[in-house]
């Protein structure tokens, strides 16, 4: 059974980023759910089965990398594409990103248009 709109999970501890991305993605026709930390996001990912996850790297309780690592350990969530948001200039190990199959690292500040473009690219195989 196919959903009407692809579902996007946004994870960030900065409420203004959650609000702006959620608004822009909803306007672009996506169903959006959100979480303020990695622990909450893990629970939502298991229940909601989003088509894409957009997560901040640095968050309280559980980082975006650790959340992704745990997602990859579950058959229900191992193949969900992940976009990682992080501060510009913050060094991320390319090997870790590849190992966790993180699709793209997007540096803050970013444009919501850029994020939507990456989401559309990730979902294009679903719409063909």
Explain the overall architecture:
43% of the residues lie in helices and 22% in strands. The radius of gyration is 13 Å and the shape is globular. Strands 2-1-3-4-5 form a 5-stranded parallel beta sheet, sandwiched between helices. The longest helix is centred in the C-terminal third of the chain and has 16 residues, at 112-127. It has a single domain (7-123), classed as Response regulator (Rossmann fold, 3-Layer(aba) Sandwich). α1 (15-27) crosses α5 (112-127) and α2 packs parallel to α3. It has helices at 15-27, 38-48, 64-72, 94-99, 112-127, and strands spanning 7-11, 31-35, 52-56, 82-87, 102-108. β1 (7-11), α1 (15-27) and β2 form a beta-alpha-beta unit. The two termini are 16 Å apart. The protein contains 5 helices and 5 strands, in the order βαβαβαβαβα. With 128 residues, the chain is α/β, with parallel strands linked by helices.
């Amino acid at each position: 059974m196919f959903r009407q709109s692809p579902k996007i999970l946004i994870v960030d501890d900065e409420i203004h980023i959650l609000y702006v991305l959620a608004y822009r993605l909803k306007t672009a026709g996506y169903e959006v759910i959100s979480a303020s930390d990695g622990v909450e996001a893990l629970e939502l990912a298991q229940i909601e089965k989003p088509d894409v996850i957009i997560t901040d790297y640095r968050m309280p309780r559980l980082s975006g990398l650790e959340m992704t690592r745990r997602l990859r350990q579950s058959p229900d969530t191992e193949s969900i594409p992940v976009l990682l948001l992080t501060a510009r200039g913050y060094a991320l190990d390319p090997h870790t990103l590849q190992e966790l199959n993180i699709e793209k690292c997007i540096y803050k500040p970013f444009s919501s248009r850029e994020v939507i473009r990456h989401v559309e690219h990730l979902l294009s195989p679903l719409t063909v």
